[in-house]
């Protein structure tokens, strides 16, 4: 993963506002839109990711606005430690009114569930953008989790 993708991912995850309560109807992305897959299987990098986000937080909104125009299909964040385990996921919409709206699919497994919870809890501290849960994710029987 290149540094630009990593920085964007961090800003999206941790500047997301707060996690809303309760499930909502899942919103599918149009199939012609490209999604940016970001694999973060190694928890040893989490502290560095948080530090990068905090460093670039002052410029997050302009970067995210520009990036959302260039990458309209959204982001798939895969925290799974073991891709052979049954995947779990949730879909979110990260937005700042009249500036940008970015769909994000968060994927984890049993071994990475605490990391998913950590990143979502951390996002509660950032109010620059709003995050809305838009769905539960994809079927566990689907063979390619990046095509939902």
What this model shows, in words?
- By secondary structure, this protein is an alpha/beta fold.
- It has one domain.
- Helices cover 30% and strands 22% of the residues.
- It is built from 4 helices and 5 strands, in the order H-E-H-H-E-E-E-H-E.
- It has a 5-stranded mixed β-sheet.
- The protein is globular.
- The C terminus is likely disordered.
A few lines on this structure:
The protein is built from 4 helices and 5 strands. It has 148 residues and is an alpha/beta fold.
Mean pLDDT: 76
Task: Spell out the helices and strands N to C.
Answer: HEHHEEEHE
Kindly report how far apart the N and C termini lie. Answer: 21 Å
Shape category: globular
Largest sheet: 5 strands, mixed
What is the strand content? 15-25%
Helix content estimate? 25-40%
The total count of helices amounts to 4
| Helix/strand class | alpha/beta
Number of strands: 5
Walk across the major sheet and give the strand order.
Answer: 1-2-4-3-5
Q: From the alpha-carbon coordinates, what is the Rg to the nearest angstrom? A: 14 Å
**Stretches with pLDDT under 50, minimum 5 residues:** 15-27, 139-148
Please, how many domains?
1
Protein name: Rhodanese-like domain-containing protein
Signal peptide: 1-24
Keywords: Signal
List the helices and strands and how they pair.
Elements: H1 3-14, E1 36-39, H2 46-56, H3 60-70, E2 75-78, E3 88-96, E4 100-108, H4 113-123, E5 130-135
Parallel strand pairs: 1-2, 2-4
Antiparallel strand pairs: 3-4, 3-5
């Amino acid at each position: 993963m290149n540094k630009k993708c990593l920085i964007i991912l961090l800003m999206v995850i941790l500047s997301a506002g707060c996690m809303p309560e309760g499930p909502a109807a899942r919103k599918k992305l149009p199939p012609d839109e490209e999604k940016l897959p970001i694999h973060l299987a190694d928890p040893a990098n989490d502290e560095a990711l948080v530090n990068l986000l905090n460093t670039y937080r002052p410029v997050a909104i302009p970067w995210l606005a520009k990036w959302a125009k260039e990458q309209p299909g959204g982001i798939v964040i895969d925290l799974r430690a073991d891709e052979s385990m049954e995947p779990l996921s949730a879909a979110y919409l990260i937005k700042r009114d009249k500036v940008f709206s970015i769909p994000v699919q968060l994927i984890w497994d049993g071994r990475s569930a605490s990391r998913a919870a950590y990143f979502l809890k951390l996002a509660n501290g950032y109010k620059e953008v709003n995050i809305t849960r838009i769905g539960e994710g994809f079927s566990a029987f689907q063979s390619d989790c990046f095509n939902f």
